[in-house]
## 1
Amino acid sequence: MNLELENLSVKVDNKDILKDFNLKIKPGEIHAIMGPNGVGKSTLSKVIMGYPDYKIVKGDIKVDNKSIKELEITKRAKLGIFLVYQNPVSIEGVRSSEVLKSSYDAVSNEKKSLYEFITNIEDISVELNMNKDMLHREFNVGFSGGERKKNEILWLLMLKPKFIILDELDSGLDVDSLKVVTEALNKYLEENKETSVLIITHYTRILDYLKPKYVHMVKDGTIIKSGDFSLAKLIEKYGYNQSFDIKGDLTCE
Amino acid sequence: MNKICIETSEFDLKITSNEDYFLEIKKALTLKVSVCKNVQSKIIFLSKDSSIDLDIELLEFASLDIQGLGINTTLTCNTKENENSNLKSVISIASYKDSCNKININMASSNSNCNFFLNGVNLENNKLYFTVNGIINKNLENVLLEENTCIINRKDGDSKIIPNLLVDSDSTVANHSAFIGKLDDEVIRYLNSRGIEDREAKKILLRAVLLGKMDLGEAQEEFRNLLNLIID
Ligand SMILES: Nc1ncnc2c1ncn2[C@@H]1O[C@H](COP(=O)(O)OP(=O)(O)OP(=O)(O)O)[C@@H](O)[C@H]1O
Ligand SMILES: [Mg+2]
């Protein structure tokens, strides 16, 4: 999917969060965003997803050159946008398999019987090294942070999205789980060459696995510096303030 | 499981052996359940548009797991537990008419347990009241009473939970929790972001409030189907 953010300015509760945000992600590209706490990274992910409480005051979001600004959140999900949440919710009284099936039926064009569907998600859960029982437990209730993240990836692989936002996928996942999950993602991306990814993270480890082509540094609601993977290394080493000051050949096209 | 369709206005169910029951209640009913000494049983009931006057008595060492759904039902329930008895109850009420429900839990003897869940969904702009009285008699030992009540307003209905715990004994644990609110917008948005429309998301969540704490086995499908018709 080709996604463009053009001069995007966003308000929440009358507070300016994103300001003149520009970003172009072409089909198959992987971009990463890094930035200090509270600069608006999760906000950005929710704006792309279509959260109505985040008001776009200026600019546009385009998918394959068409504005999606007016599209509701469910329609964007059906277009193929998938957000892996920083803090996925839990839902008491509802089994994982039930929400996953409702979602699959709503989004996917392929029709599957309940049996085929369960077999399919069980296969994915094996791939992700998850306990199959989790499917029959209440959705994310009592799950650890890492288990919730795996559940997100399970859901992702089931819906086969065309644009993926990973909002701190790496928080909560242990070293081994991060490896398993990113391997599954890489395999998916290998099979779905048009799918693009936006990674939001504070650490380079996830970037070592997913290998973004571009890395952007965000501050005060906008991108202040872009580069390749070496920018991420620089941020990790020197922090956000110093990395910004370092001059060098870091800017992408 | 014994399936009984009750079309009378009074019914006595005396449970003398370890058997389970599914009761379909067809009209306003006075139902007396007594579980005999040493017997363990489970009752599932379903009622639509019928009020229920329910009396439960557990004799010594009896145990009962009762789970029921009432749609537009008004429930009055009195429980009485004798020595070493164990009651678990999950009752849910979904209503689009005024419904004032009253539960009296009487822990009459020592070494008894009661875990009572009462969940409600106020579907329209009607009244949905729960009055829950838990009474633990004087000088009892080792009594455990848990009352959990919750009402979700689908619209702007008038919902109330009035809890009373009258505890006249030291060696007891008695807890009460009450929640009245709306469905969580954050969860609805989350489901939206996975393609699930508002209407379907709300249905899933309301069903969870009403049935989530139940273990219905084969009756699950029937309960779900009925709810789907009501909360559309
Ligand atoms: N719904 C909201 N209502 C009010 N303020 C909000 C809302 N959502 C976000 N904000 C504010 O917007 C700012 C950006 O928040 P956001 O969650 O996007 O930060 P972030 O960059 O993802 O931070 P972190 O790295 O800690 O995850 C914060 O100051 C936050 O408090
Ligand atoms: Mg964040």
## 2
Amino acid sequence: MTEPISLELTRKDFVSDQTVRWCPGCGDYAILAQLQKVLPELGIPKEKIVFISGIGCSSRFPYYMNTFGIHSIHGRAPTLASGLAAANPDLNIWVITGDGDGLSIGGNHLIHAIRRNVNLNILLFNNRIYGLTKGQYSPTSRKGKKTKSSPMGSIEQPLNPLTLALSAEATFVARAMDTDTVHLGEVLKAAAAHEGTSFVEIYQNCVIFNPNEWTGIDDRRTRSDHVIYLEHGQPLIFGKNNDKGVRLNGFKPEVVDLGGEFTEKDLIVHDETSQELAYILAHMEHPTYPPPMGIIRSVRKPTYTEELMGQVRMAQERNGMGDLKSLYHSSDIWTV
Amino acid sequence: MSDPTAHFEELESVVIRFAGDSGDGMQLTGTQFTTTSAVFGNDISTLPDYPAEIRAPAGTLAGVSGFQVNLSQHDILTPGDAPFVLVAMNPAALKASLPDLEIGGIIIVNTDAFTPTNLKKADYESNPLEDGSLKSYEVHEVPLTSLTREALKGLETLSTKEKDRCQNFFALGMTFWIFDRSLDTSESWIENKFAKKPEIAQANKIALETGFFFGETTEVFRRRFHIRPASLPAGTYRNVTGNEAMALGLVTAAQKMDKPLFYGSYPITPASDILHALAPLRNFDVRTFQAEDEIAAMGSVIGAAFGGALAVTGTSGPGLALKSEAMNLAIMLELPMVIVNVQRGGPSTGLPTKTEQADLLQALYGRNGESPIPVLAPKGPSDCFDIAYEACRLAVRAMTPVLVLSEGYLANSSEPWLIPDPNDIEPIVVKHPEGRSEDDAPFFPYLRDEETLGRPWAIPGTPGLEHRIGGLAKAPITGNVSQDPRHHEQMIKLRAEKVARLANAVPEQDVFGPAEGDLLVITWGGTFGAVRTAVTRARKNHNYDVAHAHLRFLNPFPRNMEKILRSYKRILVPELNNGQLAFVLRGTYGLDNIISYPKLHARPFKIGEVYQKLEELFNN
Ligand SMILES: Cc1ncc(C[n+]2csc(CCOP(=O)(O)OP(=O)(O)O)c2C)c(N)n1
Ligand code: SF4
Ligand SMILES: [Mg+2]
């Protein structure tokens, strides 16, 4: 036997020996780097961390992490992760999925994993395109999007990953961008700390097949004018000079300039526990609104495995540990 | 005093069918009769037959629900070809069962149900009780509904509807009287079942007793029968259906591995009862997971296997089709798990409540790429226990998913099971690699055991064993992603060889009858009973040169298989599909003496039809 590996982990401990094979400039690199930076800070032994992915560029992720991992099949990562959590409730499990993997072929599994509140951190890399299959439109591609499979423009209404997660009763919903790595790191840490399903949408750049998708949103120099960073208990303020905010006009959010007719007191104050507010925020889409970044909803509810193992314990207390002999005899028996 | 058994006719065996509307409680009546007969000591075999619709229109042929039980003083292997006694609760039940009934057999009908409306619903143009069409049978007309109502007159708190629900117990009581059976077992069942509804309990008991005494006092039934207890091997018995035995076998395997049992499944007839049997066993650390679909069930099982649990899923044909892609992932990941497929009539939704054996080729070959998987099949309800245990043992030994092909017929039929002593069941030894430190040699996830070719089962949580596996083609030993053509070939051959070597871990095939000669009959799955009985009779009555080999291991075949096959002039393969095993045997062994004998009715073989087939083969 060996002594337990020391918990003083560094980024290097999480780097595997496999060469990373994403295109140069792909947003996936930044996300990988952030996770490798954040994981050593969580205080979780490395052997308890598992990455499970589906299929797609993003789903190559587990190969690059020096943890336990499964690169599974298209769309099904949440199912493997749920079974793993049930078998082994103290693991720290990450599900890596794409907008096609998680919302198209695997949409059903995503909903149900979230609904069950399995203790998983689900990271959905949203590049609004099918990267691995070379550039077809995805369920998050905007209407009118011209791709190889939609030369005259997509005629489909896109899905909003956040509202989908919320309607599946997600207990933790957040959003981050590959270009804002510091903020991404904070969101990932919060997701890891949350017990139950943490769902994080990450705006991710596919520089090859969808290069301009986030233009006007994620640019380092101007993004503070175009997105809003949420903080629990704080008013919804944004803008380079903190001069804009969001207030409620009836049921509708409204972007207002501060300093004139409106002051901070008129603005919505973020409350991570409010289901109603979460819906309003999740629906705030570019360019009408600054899309929100950060934690949209976070509430504590019993997780699937807490409930499952609770039943196991309760049954063992009530009926005693299972005994095969009495199980075999638990029916009308006769002796010859 | 005269001998009390004087008016009894002695029978060696008898087949009884209870038939009625799906709401009439016939499954319950049949089960009660079975349990009592089993406790009495008969050998028994049962076959429930119910419609796919939960509540088909009352009184119609589509709504008939039947339960057939064969009881005997000998060892029996099937629920019987033709009922000798039929209890028919309405005209539709009579009409649906009559073609199966033995000529000269006994029919007990509920005359109250023979109304013009019900006759019309059953498509009868005239009343069979009056038009002489039943003259080859011994018919007993009993106004069951009114007699039951009359018996329960005193129970004022019960509605007429509630009283009418007791008429199946009246019928049961009469049948008990005819066969001279004790009411004790059923009475205590009623007391238990309705412990919280004492009035319902009382009503059912009164109905049961009144039915019994009706036989005694009215002398309607001139004939009564005795079937002596069978001389079964000594021990304690209970009755099990195939699905119950499967569930018991899985829990046993988990306990014998010292592991939690993870059972991920999506409900589907006729496999759901396995889930129902396992769900209450939380105190055995059984973790059932009702997945959102069969794909999710299969995925969850792979995840649970990676996590170190004994991981099992159960489904039926359409669900197995959905699982295929994930099963291939399991084959690539080389993790141990068990997939139980309780076959039903197909293709597509097919015949959900009827039996078939038509998923054999799907099981063996129905996935993309080279995809070898061990396949096992139980031969009867109680054998599901042993097959479940075997499947788990082999899965762990070779680090592979294992497929079990059960059948609707086996799943729902029941027979006595000689209860084993759990201490006599071998433990299944599982070795997980231990943790490592940086100074130790690196961990190779695909470094194989030399004997079994299984790879290490390294579970998350073990320090130093961090590794990644996936569905992409990989290099041997390291398991790293590789597109090298030699690696691809090597891994295909290793996975195939690993499955083939399981033949070393299973018993040789046994043969009933001569070790060489004219005809070998080969079967698999639930056809065992009918075919073994037919072969036995044919040998006894005609002295035919015929042997029977029944396969429980379909991949790999037992190691002496080829030798057996080459020892006979002709090989007959009866199966409930269009010749799938025959096709596999021809292809695997290049045989040209195979006679396929398909039955495509989605119903089990009858002993008589197999017997006739043998006569045909020997007379031409
Ligand atoms: C069953 C199945 N169907 C289709 C594919 C092909 N396929 C692989 S990845 C992919 C789409 C991936 O898109 P996304 O999830 O957005 O990931 P990205 O590559 O953009 O990161 C498709 C259609 C597959 N691997 N498996
Ligand atoms: S195709 Fe797009 S998503 Fe895929 S690796 Fe290249 S840049 Fe990244
Ligand atoms: Mg994508």
## 3
Amino acid sequence: MSAELTAYSISLADDALVLGHRLSQWSSLGPTLEEDIALSNLALDLIGQARLFYTLAGQIEGKDRTEDDFAYFRDAGDFRNVLLVELPNSDFAHAMVRQLVYAAFAHPYLDALSRSSHSGLAEIAAKAVKEIAYHVRHSAEWVIRLGDGTDESRRRTIAALDALWPYVDELFEMDAGERSLVAAGIAPDRAAIRPVWDRTIDNVLREATLERPSQVAVARTGGRSGRHTSDLAAMLADMQVLARAHPGVTW
Amino acid sequence: MTDKTPMPLWEVFIRARSGLPHKHCGSVHAPDATMAVQAARDVYTRRGESVSIWVVPSAAIIASDPNEKDQLFEPTSTKAYRHPTFYDIPDEVGHM
Amino acid sequence: MYTQALNAKDASAGTRPEDTARLAVFQSTVDAEDKIEPNDWMPDGYRKTLIRQISQHAHSEVIGMQPEGNWITRAPSLRRKAALLAKIQDEAGHGLYLYAAAETLGVSRDELYEQLLSGKAKYSSIFNYPTPTWADIGIIGWLVDGAAIMNQIPLCRCSYGPYARAMIRVCKEESFHQRQGYEIMLTLCRGTPEQKAMAQDALNRWWWPVLMMFGPSDKDSMHSADSTRWKIKRFSNDDLRQKFVDATVPQGQFLGLTFPDPDLRLDEESGHWHYGEIDWSEFKRVVAGDGPMNKQRMAHRRQTEADGAWVREAAMAHAEKRRQRAAAARIAAE
Ligand SMILES: [Fe+2]
Ligand SMILES: [Fe+2]
Ligand SMILES: [Fe+2]
């Protein structure tokens, strides 16, 4: 079970790190100073969660791998994050829709994980769930304002929904390893989270006077098995460039 | 700026700990009250400074006129009888 | 300093005769180390000087996010990444507090942005230098934030209440910035020869520009006597610069680094570190807009402003819709 558990903790960390990294790229680009600060807060929450899940993975694995070994010394093909979080930043509507889509899932998921039979995972989840609750609220308020704002903001929000919708299903995917953790009462069942996600999203869209994309696009998956977009490789090449140029040193 | 209407300014008050009063700590720009609370949270409570936030539209603050400082506040300085030290109580009576 | 371009004398500093009595009250308030508050009467020159100084300071904080922002995505460990992001976020906050302080003087944040983007308002020359290596992040925290703190601590006692209060908040938050930077330098200097060389190279590039942060030498500074009389400025440029050099040289020696100044020596008599001649022509060039990164910094800021416009408009449009709906609901209920 320890290999599955390590892989699972890494995948939770990867989701958080990659999305946190994308949010961190908003620094000095926020639409207002207030929102610039808010976006960094979201990024810091997620980077913090990633660090905890990586560290736990290293402990479970027992090979002395640190958070930085996982973050800086694995290639894109070793990352297990969903594709949703690796898509490059576009406009602010894209950022807020992505945050809502992710957080509306992560909030009930972490809540369930906080009752995991694995105390290490449960502890991290209990801390993270409070952070993510605010992510839901903040992104929801923005999606409502952008959806029901000006013609331009509405157009951009609809475009973001269309662009991101194909990546939703992957949030609910589980491989055999994760299923075994579900059976063992360690990982929550992602399928059980779907109705909660649906409700949150539909409530926000209704208030935003928006609808779910009508064109049913083919679901885009593969991240959980390491098949990523080239955007992740580009992101990691940048993120890891300094650490890899000087392996083994302290920063 | 191309923006037509500037975002309103809000005054932010935070309660540092349970039991303390809300205290003015600064201001934020936000389109409405809900976002003002969120902005205040993101800007002014990043180091655990707060357990509660108030926001008030800056335009709604009514202030006393600084030119009337004398008539408003000066007269109280001569009313020493409002202070406990004005009264002589023998030490033998103990703390009162 | 962050307001080093404040050297032009204000021509319109004259006072009307009827203001003489109020001016006396104002000056006695300042002399008594009391605070001037937004609604108090103040001379036009005081208001203008404050708006210029506070907004230049605010612009510097916001533009100052960019050189360090260059390394957020490449920070070499997750611990450093989180610290750097939080540090840059603080600088955004500093800009915000300072814009808010300026707004109490009757100028809007949007107007101040416009002054920055049109080039009318300046920001600190230091942020026009590039950050090609990770050691630059250490240097900025150690030296740039260190120099800023030297300047900002006396501003906590500035006569204008909102500015002083903003600076108190800023100084509290600054306390981790310099330590964060110095820790990076220390780690590099105790690391591999390559890391140490990176640290030395950064010091070589930044030392002189950092000394320029304090503004022109007192003998050339047109810094008005007004600022001193108004208790906005409490120490001269050269005094603060000397204080900074005295505090910093031993820190650099502890790191085992060499300052790029052959004239640097401890003057036994005065106890001060004597430093060499600053190249003021470089300073003037960078302040005037011809530094290595001026164009990029402004282009970046302009882009941010432009990209955010539709978001701000949408938020305001939504607020207006809500107001109208609430009004309609009220009418329907009557
Ligand atoms: Fe700064
Ligand atoms: Fe700052
Ligand atoms: Fe700073």
